[in-house]
């Protein structure tokens, strides 16, 4: 049922536009995509798409053009290779249109929310402030994590300083904030003290890509057709993901067991500050043919890979949520992961938790999983594990935005 006094929503898609050249989505890419898809289907009557232009403004976009772009992006993520070359061109045209709209953007009359579910351009508070002032909008951002501030040793040079600026923008301008886990809310709390959204930080866990519910029509595997069992690690190759733990374990296993060693399949692009990891991948003889690396698998290929594996290994030192954890559990794939608060929050009793520095414990868990057969597993029950589909989770996020507008309206407050 349409709520007539619901606020207008300015949905920012800057992150998706900036990622048009990347055929494999990150977790944050997926979040923005799912919010856009839900709003188009359920809230189009009160929706305007906007994006940031590098010239320093935020402007509106054609809904029809955004529909075509998002539809194409979803197909690319599902493995449509011919569309890959067209997607950057579509993004470029949309970005160019932002600049044109900035010159003649009418003011919105009535309550409105500016919704930004990525960290894109949070280091540029000026354009955000001008947009909020122009429309009288309330700012509702999503903060995914504070990892660069909590673990600066794992960040790219300059990233802790950039993330500090992002959090200052959120603290100063946000009317409320969405976070994916209580652990993130706890980390954010010190930055929000005595700020407008101090008591308006809302936990809305991420959902699960619905394609994971369809387990038929699996694509052909790219793995060698020799029947060897394997384990999977999903994630960008960067220091905080702790790939070195697994690579050292695999080197020792190969030296001990030879051809009886299961494979380790790494899925994710190469990130930053990872020279030691790449040296092992490229130059360690024991890992050649035993550790495989893929950086361009489509969503259906990842699903198939997880289903056939002995288990998902997730030894990360820090995460904001951990979508691969959810994906594996729903598929019934065993999970061995780091003993960190956010993983306990997401997985509950449905994973094996280990110290990310305890190599012998990880080896013991891997050996135990080798005794299990993937064919005998059944998919997990999402409801039992407190996991939800994306539409339900996006609806909860939109409810936060609507509640923020209602709170300001009922208390006679105005956007700053």
From TrEMBL:
Keywords: Transferase. Gene3D superfamilies: Glycogen Phosphorylase B. Residues 222-383 form the Glycosyl transferase family domain. The keyword Acetylation does not apply. InterPro entries: Glyco_trans_1. It holds the Pfam family Glycos_transf_1. One of its GO terms (molecular function) is glycosyltransferase activity. The keyword Transferase applies. This is Glycosyl transferase family 1. The lineage of its organism: Bacteria, Pseudomonadati, Pseudomonadota, Alphaproteobacteria, Acetobacterales.
